[in-house]
Design goal:
Length: about 110
């Protein structure tokens, strides 16, 4: 399985966020595409084309790891974001909340 650290991802990169709606709403990467893990098989066609691997993120890396395994099985080029959004935020990467306001990783 391909992995990537948040520090290796451009601040304005497109990432796939597989967390639940409330987690995403509280704080996500600026250009994140939100598809909860449970909805991924039905919505895989919504994934964007990117150069290289599409980073996949969740809170700490567990759900995104499962998503990456499944997506690789579908022939897609993806990479699990090590440490998830918790590490993304700890590394000082930008996050934003839906509707503005203070962003958090929950």
């Amino acid at each position: 399985m391909n992995t990537v650290t948040p520090k290796d991802i451009a601040d304005d990169a497109v990432v796939l966020d597989v967390r639940e709606q409330d987690e995403y709403d509280a704080g996500h990467a600026p250009r994140a595409i939100h598809i909860p893990l449970a909805e991924l098989p039905a919505r895989v066609g919504e994934l964007p084309e990117v150069d290289g691997d599409l980073p996949v993120v969740c809170r700490s890396g567990g759900r995104s790891s499962r998503a990456v395994q499944w997506l690789e099985g579908q022939g897609l080029d993806v990479a699990n974001v090590e440490g998830g959004m918790k590490q993304w935020h700890a590394d000082g990467k930008p996050i934003q909340a839906v509707g503005g306001g203070d962003a958090n990783v929950i």
